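Here's my example:
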Amino acid sequence: LGKFLPDQDRPNEGVFSFQDDDDQWLSLRYDLTAPMARFVAENFERLPKPYRSYRSGWVFRNEKPGPGRFRQFMQFDADTVGTPGVAADAEMAMMMADVMEALGIKRGDYVIRVNNRKVLDGVLEAIGLGGDENVGRRLTVLRAIDKLDKLGVEGVRLLLGTGRKDESGDFTKGAGLDNVQAEAILHATAKPELGDLGHPDSAVRASQSFNEGVAELSTIEDLVRAAGYGEDRIVMDRSVVRGLEYYTGPVYEAELLAEIPNEEGKIVRFGSVGGGGRYDG
């Protein structure tokens, strides 16, 4: 599973695996993307382009359960293969909004957040974290930013630096960035709205990746607004990074905003219930 991904992105750590009587390893399905990618790779020449597909099925995660995090859940997956322009990414964001409403979730109770990984990649390159030798540190940075909604700016700042100790006393090692590097990352990601995507660092402003990301985000926003999707449904949000290294362009998340009582009557915010992004080969 995921054998063609970089080591840091392989989901093996979260896969339910066991050995049969012949000592052969068996694993429960982790997600629906890897099987789709395998099918496309085996049939690429015969498939129409763009190739759109969707599927659903049970998936399993060997990880600590929590509010909104389950070890077994039904996953719904949709993909478009063979589309270089960001119109396909805008279409995906609009489809996510339509799906939420088709499930009976009212406007105001959800939002689709869109960003572009090229923006952050440009910042990472400018502060010296480009190149294959820094893959591990980049992934640590991505996972730190992915916790922005839970830990806040100061919590993420600790994870970008030496590390953070949580309420239970467990310590999470940080990315080891200095203050200047951490501030450059936080400036590019910590503000929820798209706003002014300029950057005080001249090296960042000169980055081709950064500027491409900004331009593509602007195009996506123009497309979704022209199609009638307002900010009550889709917003550009530069804090969205998705915690995987292989995304190369636009990324998106579907977030539940409604406060839902659990079995004990306590109010629970589920947060992100879906997401994805572009990965170009």
In short: Confidence is low (pLDDT under 50) at residues 1-11.
